[in-house]
């Protein structure tokens, strides 16, 4: 009888300590994550302005109607979608290809990884700054392209032409993150048992066959993870576009959703509308995460 | 049969060489902008935009660095902003490691009612994009009167869900016998955490510290909102301002960039294992 009582006390004691250790987390996330997200959703129904002394007025779905009816918002959706698509394809393909090549090397793996990863270490702002100079009309990008295409003296208008400025932001992004995703892929490839490849080699499978028949199917969990991570990161892109437009590039073509939220809140001081866009972005990301969870669940069952 | 094997061997060797060439070219291309930054930081502005570009400066101009630190108006604000970045990023790295291990330990080693719910709630915050909550967060900071203060820059990032997740996964494998032995010896729970658990959190804690530091070093959006006064800006905000100013010297701009990158590159070369491993930990965890 007695031991049971003591163990019950111990148990209660332990559970109390469990709460004590996790309490700082609960408090922190309540204040800095849950309250703000609820507040953003709440604000999206009010006519609220930054720095205004008038009490915010409840306007129902009016902000949503305004935002969804404005060309500016749809332009941001277009800009974000174009950026995401334009980054996703080259970034995914390149990092997968590079990872496969690096994984098949016996030596200098680490050197390759470090070289490719090094731009990811830089601040996005520094990255954008370097490219601002490279893409200058007199800069290296024009010189390089003209050298390869044998068209001396042509200005590609990297930062002034509407289409080119989008291409430029995509280029900066792919350059910066290709190493990061290469390493994710290398880790994924490393988890595929060597014996599977050895068996395939004995059966006479060539490198191309091994890639499509073994690497790709067994890499699926990593592929899903990388895809979702690229998507989420692209939706949140901000620094490059911000710095390029600050330096004089046209805003319209690269007015991605986060840049629009920032400008709507801080320049136009319209918190209600900024919150609408924030809420929509959040819902979209929630959807993406759900898709990812669905996919990774299915993988678990399969494996 | 033998001929086919021979052919495929030759083809494979050729493919290997092509792959190596591709790899080398990719690495070179990736490194070009970095080499450009380093070279241009020592050049007079005119040489940076000269027609056949010279990678190695013809005329060296180390004065770029002086200009970078002194600023266009000579008020040496960059030094202050570098200090701010160091203070903010290191404080966040330290607090993230400490608080994440605390909460991660609680979730990993104590079975209590609601344990799972708390864990899931914290994980759910990973889905909230910062852009969505930045305005309400800003309002909180305004209400607390913390604009233009270190506290305002630091407090919203004291810990994060990824850190909690990382530390929980790491500590879950920590042998419970050691903890029980310490309890029997009369060691108090806070002391067990401090002396035994935290001391042994090594690799995971180092990874988390490095990643948090780098992330904050890069943070532009939040300091743009919170730090309106020049003295409270961090490096990214300073760079944006410096680059947007009229008559900004290109050489000095690259010097600013080099200075901003030195600390993270030092971290990267010194602790590359945690950088490269960090993303691996992330992928392992997410799966």
Would you give an account of this structure?
By secondary structure, chain A is an all-alpha fold. Chain A is 77% helix and 1% strand. Chain A has a two-stranded antiparallel ribbon with strand order 1-2. In chain A, helix 3 runs parallel beside helix 7. By secondary structure, chain B is mainly alpha-helical. Chain B has two domains: 65 residues, no CATH class; 210 residues, Orthogonal Bundle (MetI-like fold). Chain B is globular and about 75 Å long. The C terminus of chain B is likely disordered. The chains are: A mainly alpha (303), B mainly alpha (287). At the A-B interface, helix 1, helix 3, helix 4, helix 5 and helix 7 of A face helix 1, helix 4, helix 5, helix 6 and helix 12 of B.
Oligomer: heterodimer
β-strand number of chain B: 0
Content-based structural category of chain B: mainly alpha
Portion in beta strands of chain B: under 5%
Strands of the widest sheet of chain A, in order across it, are 1-2
What is the beta-strand fraction of chain A? under 5%
Spatial gap, N to C terminus of chain B: 43 Å
Give the low-pLDDT segments of chain A: none
Which architecture of chain A per CATH? Orthogonal Bundle
The CATH C-level name of chain A is Mainly Alpha
The total of beta strands of chain A comes to: 2
How many structural domains in the coordinates of chain B? 2
Short characterization:
Chain A has 303 residues and is mostly helical.
Short descriptors:
heterodimer, A: 303 residues, mainly alpha, MetI-like fold, 77% helix, flat, B: 287 residues, 0% strand, disordered C terminus
Question: How are the SSEs placed, and which strands pair?
Answer:
The complex is a heterodimer of chains A (303) and B (287).
Chain A: H1 2-43, E1 46-47, E2 57-58, H2 62-69, H3 71-104, H4 109-121, H5 124-134, H6 140-149, H7 162-190, H8 194-202, H9 207-218, H10 220-235, H11 239-246, H12 257-266, H13 271-302
Antiparallel strand pairs in A: 1-2
Helix pairs in contact in A: 1-13, 2-13, 3-7, 3-10, 4-7, 5-7, 5-11, 7-10, 10-13, 12-13
Chain B: H1 2-40, H2 45-48, H3 63-70, H4 77-109, H5 115-124, H6 130-143, H7 150-154, H8 161-171, H9 176-184, H10 189-197, H11 202-217, H12 221-226, H13 235-244, H14 250-270, H15 272-286
């Amino acid at each position: 009888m007695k031991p049971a009582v003591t163990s019950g006390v111990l148990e209660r004691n332990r559970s109390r300590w469990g709460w004590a250790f996790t309490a700082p987390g609960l408090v922190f996330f309540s204040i800095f994550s849950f309250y703000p997200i609820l507040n953003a959703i709440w604000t999206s129904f009010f006519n609220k302005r930054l720095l205004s002394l008038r009490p915010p007025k409840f306007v129902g779905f009016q902000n949503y109607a305004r935002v969804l009816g404005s060309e500016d918002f749809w332009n941001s959706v277009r800009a974000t979608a174009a950026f995401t698509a334009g980054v996703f394809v080259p970034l995914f393909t390149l990092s997968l290809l590079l990872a496969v090549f690096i994984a098949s090397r016996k030596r200098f793996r680490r050197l390759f990884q470090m070289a490719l990863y090094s731009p990811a270490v830089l601040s996005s702002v520094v990255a954008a700054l370097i490219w601002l100079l490279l893409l200058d009309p007199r800069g290296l990008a024009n010189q390089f392209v003209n050298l390869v295409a044998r068209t001396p003296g042509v200005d590609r208008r990297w930062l002034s032409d509407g289409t080119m400025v989008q291409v430029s932001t995509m280029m900066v992004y792919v350059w910066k993150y290709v190493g990061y995703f290469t390493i994710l892929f290398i880790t994924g490839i490393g988890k595929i048992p060597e014996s599977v490849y050895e068996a395939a080699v004995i059966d006479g499978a060539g490198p191309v066959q091994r890639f499509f028949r073994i690497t790709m199917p067994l890499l699926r969990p990593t592929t899903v993870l990388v895809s979702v991570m690229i998507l989420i990161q692209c939706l949140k892109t901000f620094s490059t576009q911000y710095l390029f437009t600050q330096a004089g590039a046209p805003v319209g073509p690269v007015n991605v959703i986060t840049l629009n939220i920032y400008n709507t809140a801080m320049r136009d001081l319209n918190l209600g509308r900024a919150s609408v866009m924030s809420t929509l972005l959040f819902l979209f990301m929630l959807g993406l995460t759900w898709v990812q969870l669905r996919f990774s669940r299915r993988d678990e069952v399969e494996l | 049969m033998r001929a086919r094997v021979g052919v495929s061997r030759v083809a494979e060797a050729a493919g290997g060489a092509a792959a190596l060439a591709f790899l080398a070219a990719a690495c070179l291309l990736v490194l070009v902008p970095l080499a450009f930054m380093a070279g241009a930081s020592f050049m007079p502005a005119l040489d940076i935009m000269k027609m056949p570009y010279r990678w190695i400066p013809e005329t060296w101009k180390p004065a770029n660095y002086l200009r970078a630190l002194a600023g266009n108006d000579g008020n040496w604000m960059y030094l202050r902003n570098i200090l701010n970045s160091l203070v903010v990023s290191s404080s966040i790295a330290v607090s993230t490691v400490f608080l994440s291990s605390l909460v991660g330990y609680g979730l990993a080693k104590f079975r209590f009612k609601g344990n799972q719910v708390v864990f899931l709630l914290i994980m759910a915050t990973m889905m909230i994009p910062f852009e969505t909550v930045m305005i309400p967060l800003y309002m909180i900071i305004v209400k607390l009167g913390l604009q233009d203060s270190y506290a305002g820059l630091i407090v919203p990032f004291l810990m994060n869900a990824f850190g909690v997740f990382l530390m929980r996964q790491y500590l879950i494998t920590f042998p419970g016998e050691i903890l029980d032995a310490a309890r029997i010896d009369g060691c108090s729970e806070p002391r067990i955490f401090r002396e035994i658990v935290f001391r042994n959190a090594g690799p995971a804690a180092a990874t988390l510290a490095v990643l948090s530091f780098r992330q904050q070093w890069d943070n532009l959006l939040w300091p743009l909102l919170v730090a309106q006064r020049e003295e409270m800006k961090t490096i990214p905000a300073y760079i944006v301002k410096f680059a947007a100013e009229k008559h900004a010297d290109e050489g000095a701009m690259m010097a600013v960039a080099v200075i901003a990158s030195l600390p993270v590159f030092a971290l990267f070369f010194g602790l590359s294992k945690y950088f490269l491993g960090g993303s691996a930990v992330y992928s392992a965890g997410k799966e």
